[in-house]
Amino acid sequence: MQLAQKIIIADDHPLFRAALKQAVSQAVSGVEMIETDSLASLQETVEAHDDADLVLLDLHMPGTSGFTGLAYLRGQNPSMPVVVVSGSEEPQVMLRAIEYGASGFIPKSAPLETISEAIQAVLEGEVWLPQEVADGDASVTSEDAEFAEKLGSLTPQQFRVLMMLTEGLLNKQIAYELNVSEATIKAHVTAILRKLGVHSRTQAVIEASRMGVEPPKTEMS
Question: Residue ranges of the HTH luxR-type domain (predicted)?
Fold first, then answer.
């Protein structure tokens, strides 16, 4: 007996999660869907469901920025396909997502039928992009690709700390948010700098910001 496929839907907008669930139901019968609305809950969900067949990932969830979440997720779970579903619909953004390891990019403006077809195609092992974008070239430098690989080596807690650094939080503020000691945060920062191959937290923030994506004007996140 074949097990039902399992799909994780990661988006902080409840209405769009509902739309994605409808699209998934049209694409796959008897599927199990798990919803999550932030990076922290996504990390926990992926850990609890490491046999998931697919992750549908928004680029602008709380706790992550642009392609950093995608690069981190691919590094931690290289065998788990990830499809970006985003309101950031510039061709270069779509192509860069594929370069950073996504198995597809679905624009949020796409009709429900198109979203269903894209999900089905990726589950069958294909890489999916809108036809008019698929033949373009991405602008991902070798340095960006190398940094994306380094992001994937961070632990879940280290990645959270890095994202809080990009928000300008101090060690004591991060310690308060994560309910740990300031000494623990200092140790995390030291490990982050070593793994990313940089010498200061400012350098780490600058490198991470290069993977940012401007949030679409139609979204509040």
Answer: 147-212
- pLDDT for 216: 65
How do the domains of the chain map onto residue ranges? 6-134, 142-209
Indicate the DSSP class of residue 6: E
DSSP assignments along 1-48, one per residue: -PPPPEEEEE-S-HHHHHHHHHHHHHHSTT-EEEEE-SHHHHHHHHHH
The number of C-alpha atoms within 13 Å of 191 and in the hemisphere containing its C-beta is 17
Q: Which two tokens stand for residue 49?
A: 């469901």
For residue 99, count other CB atoms closer than 10 A to its CB: 16
Could you give the dihedral angle defined by the CA atoms of residues 36, 77, 71 and 175, in that order, rounded to the nearest 10 degrees?
60
Verdict on whether the full-model pTM lies above 0.85: no
DSSP 200: S
